[in-house]
Amino acid sequence: MTLKPLSDRVILKAVEAEETTKGGIILTSSAKEKPEMAEVVAVGPGGMVDGKEITMTVKPGDKVLTSKYSGTEVKVDGEEYTIVRQGDILAVVE
Q: Left (φ > 0), alpha (ψ -120 to 50) or beta: where does 46 sit?
């Protein structure tokens, strides 16, 4: 099954959290925070959303930062994805 986002929606896949701290301490899975960085998997076409013209500025493969609790989490074929509006993306990481 494949996901195809509609209007201004973006499908994200979380980037794995760091295994160790800067000081070299190894983190357990329970100590890791939900990652706020994700990779764009698919992008909707944009267009008219709530009476405004939306141009999509992110593209598949971009690494982005999102709010910690934004979007809707879905699981497809054993993979976890988050679906957000483009406006919920805070920044593109270059």
A: left
Q: What is the pLDDT of residues 29-85, one digit of tens each?
A: 554 455 588 999 999 999 888 888 999 999 999 999 998 888 999 999 999 999 999
Q: List the one residue out of 40, 49, 51, 41 whose CA is nearest residue 92.
A: 40
**DSSP letter assigned to residue 86:** G
Selection from 48, 35, 32, 31 nearest residue 82 by Cα: 35
pLDDT attached to residue 61: 96
Q: What is the pTM of this model?
A: 0.78
* DSSP per-residue codes, 26-67: BPPGGGSPPPSEEEEEEE---EEETTEEE-----TT-EEEE-
DSSP code for 20: B
